[in-house]
Amino acid sequence: MVVGDFATEVDVLVVGGGPGGYVAAIRAAQLGKKVVLVDKDELGGVCLNRGCIPSKAIIHAADEAHKMKNSQHMGIEVDGVKINFADMIKWKDSVVKKLTGGVGSLLKGNKVEVIQGEVYFSGEDTVKVATESNSTTYQFNHCIIATGSRPFEIPSLKFDGKKIISSTEALSLDEIPEKMVIVGGGYIGLELGTAYSKLGTQVTVLEGMDSILPGVDPSMVRMVNRNLKKLGVEVVTGAMVQSADKSGKDVTVTAEVKGEEKTFSADKVLVAVGRKPNTDEIGLDLAGIETDDKGIIPVDRQMRTKNSKIFAIGDVAGQPMLAHKASYEGKVAAEAIAGQTSEVDYRAMPYVIFTDPELAYTGLTEKEAKEQGYDVKVSRFSFAANGRALSLDAAEGFFQIVADKETSQVLGAQIVGPEASSLISEVVLAMEMGANTEDIALTIHAHPTLPETFMEAAEGIMGNAIHMVNK
Ligand code: NAI
């Protein structure tokens, strides 16, 4: 409907078509809203196009190649594994294309109108949408901002897309780099560093803090460190990067390492030092919304901003910048717009890092639980005692549960090992259902499978695990 002479009225306007925005749009449509979704780029956002999905495809392909080269002990001798990197990238692109196409069909099937264009707020309930051919003003009853984030740029190491790159370029390189310096030993640096190392690149990770993956339980990080070393990845901690010299064939990065100046050369420098919310170029001030000093939009438990008509979800609403958090918040925002009482509860947020071995955790660590006043019990079951892990030739790591001593309720879990990324879902479900360790122990787990380690760890809390000696 056209309002006055110039504005098109819309019920719910979703800005951004990533895992936050498209999910919010579908849920709002399911709840009877007339929804318009605007994205300036392809549907699927960073996650599908330049993040989670393409990186997992490359990580998997690199892992397959690595395993082939390292399976002699299982009696598999492969003569000369050859990697056709261009074909690997093509396959990765085909995976991305299938998923982005699927998002378009889902939006269409839910009668969400999709516009390719750029959004700029022009008032408290209006936006201008600039497409290739025109500029239209929309007046919305509600708006959901889901514009995501972009790689954070270090001023002295500006991205040039060729020698100094972000994760975006790292997922679409023409050839496997000979040497790669990675600035930042966080999620991206370690996932891609591991993958490129398995493809044959000589990788150096420069991490500013005392440890890679700062904030992650040190007992988990230890195992990743050990494997990086085995792969031949050089990890330098306490390394604050200062500058880069691109004048030669290679790039030379200068960093201060524990008070000493050191240089590191490579043909590619991947900078992965965090992400910045995309909130600076959409005219938020005209909508009456302010961000904090990191560019994050403050929201309430229904994802509503200071402007009650406008909601913000995903990376623009703050850490953790994870796709599944964005989708979850999108559903809550859409339901709030439809008048439901939904609110966010992050107690059982899963964190997953696709290193080798994989890491996954949720809820509280032992230390955090104690700090919160719980009398805790911790049980750790080793994958080395699990038949399936051994038969997968992946028996490194453990499944650890932190439980409340009084009620036996699961407060959190830390997993390092095979399929940790999938196994964490069982813990998240248990926590959501308010399960205690007896519930988990009484659940029949198929044998031989990896999730048996969860059952055993739960039994360990009660002192009756079968496949380990109870303390
Ligand atoms: P990050 O926050 O995970 O890690 C950045 C690292 O860079 C930190 O360890 C930090 O101490 C270090 N650092 C910062 N400034 C530095 C400097 N000047 N010199 C050296 N080190 C420096 O950020 P990252 O890896 O860029 O990833 C961004 C976000 O993307 C993650 O936080 C995560 O939310 C998301 N992500 C999630 C994945 C998953 O769920 N599996 C995979 C990849 C990314």
UniProtKB/TrEMBL annotation:
Gene3D superfamilies: 3.30.390.30, FAD/NAD(P)-binding domain. Keywords: Disulfide bond, FAD, Flavoprotein, NAD, Oxidoreductase, Redox-active center. Pfam families: Pyr_redox_2 (PF07992), Pyr_redox_dim (PF02852). Its cofactor is FAD. Signal peptide: none annotated. SUPFAM superfamilies: FAD/NAD(P)-binding domain, FAD/NAD-linked reductases, dimerisation (C-terminal) domain. Binds 1 FAD per subunit. Residues 349-458 form the Pyridine nucleotide-disulphide oxidoreductase dimerisation domain. InterPro entries: Class-I_Pyr_Nuc-Dis_Oxidored, FAD/NAD-bd_sf, FAD/NAD-binding_dom, FAD/NAD-linked_Rdtase_dimer_sf, Lipoamide_DH, Pyr_nuc-diS_OxRdtase, Pyr_nucl-diS_OxRdtase_dimer, Pyr_OxRdtase_I_AS. One of its GO terms (molecular function) is dihydrolipoyl dehydrogenase (NADH) activity. Residues 11-330 form the FAD/NAD(P)-binding domain. Its EC number is 1.8.1.4. It catalyses: N(6)-[(R)-dihydrolipoyl]-L-lysyl-[protein] + NAD(+) = N(6)-[(R)-lipoyl]-L-lysyl-[protein] + NADH + H(+). Belongs to the class-I pyridine nucleotide-disulfide oxidoreductase family. The active site is a redox-active disulfide bond. PANTHER family: DIHYDROLIPOYL DEHYDROGENASE, DISULFIDE OXIDOREDUCTASE. This is Dihydrolipoyl dehydrogenase. It comes from Kroppenstedtia sanguinis.
